[in-house]
Amino acid sequence: MNIRTTVEADLDTLLALIADQSVNTVTLERFQQFLASGAYRHEWTWVAEEDGRITALAVWWGMEQFAHPLAIDGLYYAGTGDPVPVWAELIKHGTASFPAGHEGPEYHIFLPNGWRDRPDVVAALEPRLQAAAAAGLSETTERLRYEWTPADGLPARSTRLRFEPADDEAFVDVFRRVIEGSLDASTARAVARVGVDGAAREEVELYRSLPGDRSWWRLAYDEAGALIGFAVPSANNGGPVVGYLGVLAEHRGHRYSDDLLAEITHVLAEQGAERIGADTDLGNKPMAASFERLHYRNFAVRVVASHPLG
Ligand SMILES: CC(C)(COP(=O)(O)OP(=O)(O)OC[C@H]1O[C@@H](n2cnc3c(N)ncnc32)[C@H](O)[C@@H]1OP(=O)(O)O)[C@@H](O)C(=O)NCCC(=O)NCCS
User: Fold this and answer.
1) Mind listing the pLDDT tens digit for each residue in 178-230?
2) How many structural domains is the chain composed of?
3) Where is the N-acetyltransferase domain (predicted)?
4) DSSP secondary structure letter of residue 136
5) Within this chain, do residues 247 and 155 fall inside the same structural domain, yes or no?
6) Are residues 8 and 115 in the same domain?
7) What residue owns the CA closest to ligand 1's atom 34?
């Protein structure tokens, strides 16, 4: 078996494999579009050849503005044997190309709600997660995907918090204070990798690098002037997203997340958002409950396979 990244001349073979979508995020249209935009790249796309024929494919996705991919978007197999060991080799080659200390790699699989009752989905998912685990991405987290559209109605704006802009150091400080004790698995992984301060700085850097406007970020204070939390409305390459919100540990339990989420929704709606996307871990119950209360709709789930903590 020969493993290599792809070249332009492979395109027809890649498209023939991708035509069978299965649980992969890649579609024929997305593949060609992203190859042109730089969100997919030949040097991020790995194939296995047996007897000179391409039998397996792993497509990695990344942001156009970054030099490295972030996550696997699709695994395909056209051989006759067990795909798991071949996919595992492909994933290992892809992950080996990540620079040390870089976030990720991850494997994201988008699934319909209620996927556990869909034998076709489970059958497609299982070997892919086995291959990911064999290549070291053995921790899986399920994230709930939410969306809001203007038809869902604007939530009432907070009457008990006031919102103010602040500089990056102030945001590093609040990120630092909320990520301790976060119920979010990827936050916990970042803390294990680079510590609380490092994780806070990475978050600020990440949100600064996204297309969302830095001027939308707000700190939230109560009537007595106490700092309660913060709201980072944002946008990624796919459109407006909730971004991040956090309530300082000593102020939790008063549903301030609703006030922060309402503010974010207003800021993005004022910018003309026709859809706001958001994800939260299945285990982050208070956040999921807040999305539900503000009429965000859970439309799908995202399974994330990643390296285990530590
Ligand atoms: C998610 C978050 C904003 C919710 O805070 P909140 O508005 O204070 O939550 P609620 O008031 O709705 O809390 C509901 C219950 O969950 C508890 N709770 C809230 N956050 C908790 C946490 N991180 N860990 C444990 N329990 C928590 C509350 O104490 C409350 O318990 P009670 O019903 O016994 O009083 C807050 O947990 C947080 O800042 N987490 C870290 C950042 C994060 O995960 N952001 C979301 C990224 S999308």
Assistant:
1) 998 788 888 888 898 889 999 999 999 999 999 999 999 999 999 999 999 99
2) 2
3) 173-310
4) T
5) yes
6) yes
7) 253
Rounded average pLDDT over 246-254: 96
- Asked whether residue 50 falls in the same domain as residue 126, the answer is yes
Q: How far apart are alpha carbons 258 and 158 in whole angstroms? A: 8
CA distance 86 to 92: 10
111 & 185 share domain: no
133 CA distance to ligand 1 centroid (A)? 31
Residue 144 lies in a domain: no
Q: Is residue 306 part of a domain?
A: no
Average pLDDT, the chain: 95
- The span from the CA of 38 to the CA of 45, in Å, is 12
DSSP 238-256: TEEEEEEEEE-GGGTTS-H
Q: Which pairing describes strands 276-281 and 53-61: parallel, antiparallel, or unpaired?
A: unpaired
The CA 11 to ligand 1 mean position distance, Å, reads 47
* Res 307 pLDDT > 60: yes
Residue whose CA is at the smallest distance from ligand 1 atom 28: 253
Domain that holds residue 194: 150-298
Ligand 1 centroid from CA 213, angstroms: 26
For ligand 1, residues with CB inside 6 Å are 178, 181-184, 244-247, 252-257, 280, 284, 286-287, 289-290
What CATH number did the domain enclosing 167 receive? 3.40.630.30
The minimum-distance atom of ligand 1 relative to the CA of 246 is 39
